[in-house]
Amino acid sequence: MPDYAALLDAVRGIRWPARSAVRGGIPGAHTSRMRGTSAEFTEYRPYRQGDDLGRIDWKLFARSDRAYIRLSNDRAILPTMIVLDASASMAFPIDTKGKWNLAAELTVGLAAVARSSADPVGLVIAHRDGQVVLPPRTRQGVIHEIIESISNVEPAGSEPIAPSVTAGMRMGGRIVVISDFLGDAPEMLANAARAVVGAREMHAIHIVAAEELDPPTETVLVADPEESDVRRPLAAEARAEYITAFGTWREALSHDWSDAGVAYSMVIAGSETGDHAIRRITAPRGVAVSA
């Protein structure tokens, strides 16, 4: 089980700014599309009848003999929904469950970072036994509720993830999909593209195990975690073909999601800590995160 206490301590102080201005509503930490008169000054506009006289810049009025209102970008909240893939392939490698543990860390850590900006956070877990849904909330115990929900789930089955993405879209302005994308990735991408068109912020976090990138060199019998009766030998020649095919698939996946306007990130279980990945995922565009 991940050390959530250490993780939450490591991500304290991280901020997750919206990738673009969000639709106005409840005041929060993100720049809103609405224009208002908050303390963060942006520009002036001429006074119009009915404006609050207290918003007039009287010093500018004294210099120009014209009345202007100080404008600013209002701030808004960004409800964040995290969609977590709990299919059987996420339990790989079987001995460590590295992909699942990393996915759990990212879910909890990103939820905590979003909540630190007063954003409501929620969770949808796509699982064989049905969706586990926590609507977005800001209350004190929401992170504990997310941890408890994840702890009660074991990756199993081959449940489609796309319906859970749709469920997240109904409740969030920012949707984060955490998956290995070995299932219904095309359907997930189609839903994500619709979310982007609907002015939602989409993130795709691709969980990959180090063992998937560099499988054993000796001949092994590989079992499909979602279809246990499917087994294939992985010899030296097949290993080389697999590495090439897996690399080509990952590259295409990255391009497809990025071209749809989704923020795509690949995180390797066993090679990157959860808190470092969270810093990289939440960093503003164009900002590099040191190792």
Descriptive notes:
- The chain has 291 residues and is α/β, with parallel strands linked by helices.
- The protein has two domains: 4-15 and 78-282, von Willebrand factor, type A domain (Rossmann fold, 3-Layer(aba) Sandwich), CATH 3.40.50; 30-76, no CATH class.
- The protein has nine helices and ten strands.
- The chain has helices spanning 4-11, 58-64, 98-116, 142-151, 162-171, 185-197, 210-213, 236-259, 274-282, and strands spanning 30-46, 68-76, 80-85, 121-126, 132-137, 174-179, 201-209, 220-224, 227-234, 263-269.
- The strands form three sheets. A six-stranded mixed sheet has the order 5-4-3-6-7-10, with helices on both faces.
- The longest helix is centred in the last third of the chain and has 24 residues, at 236-259.
- The chain is elongated and about 85 Å long.
- Residues 24-41 have low confidence and may be disordered.
